[in-house]
Write the structure tokens for this entry.
Amino acid sequence: MFLKYCGFQTQDDIKYAVEQHIDAIGFIHYPKSKRHQSIVEIEILSNLVPDTIYRVAVVVNPTDDIINQLLSRTNINAIQFHGDEDREMLRWCKNKYPDVKIIKALPADDTLSKRIQQYKEEADLFIIDTPSIHYGGTGQSFDWQVLEEIQDVPYLVAGGMTKEKIQQFEALHLNAAGYDIASGIETNGSKDPMKMKEISEYIKGEKQI
């Protein structure tokens, strides 16, 4: 299972996270987010992540210039579009930066199937998150039954996922590729090493370093 930890803001948290056999680590570049990091900060933090782990910049309705800066000034090698971007934006990014992984986050609402079809040619991976006017970050789960209709694309489940919720999700036998976790590895708004370790050991089935 693919495991992405997201919303990192400190060097110590990153150094611990990269020891946990995760597949991707996310940095949020969205000023309205409580986890927002500037491009300068992302440049510093992403350099701490080894090449074996995807370094993801999470953006919301970015300009071309922001994408260009993130990919020219930092060690980022994946862009997660988390807003209302049209497929032309994803196509432009994919064509200009063919080695960069394109991720599209979508809300788990009644337009989900239609929007997956809209973006599937451009996106390498989807993230399905709880609907919110703030584009995610709610820490709340959604009705996972809506995922039954997703059969032909890889996706991660987001929305307040903890070890206990992952176990509940597994009981539904849906075909998710993995999980995208931010609040589920935090305590009182700060990254919690024990929660990171507990989830990664459960998902990856390995004792960590």
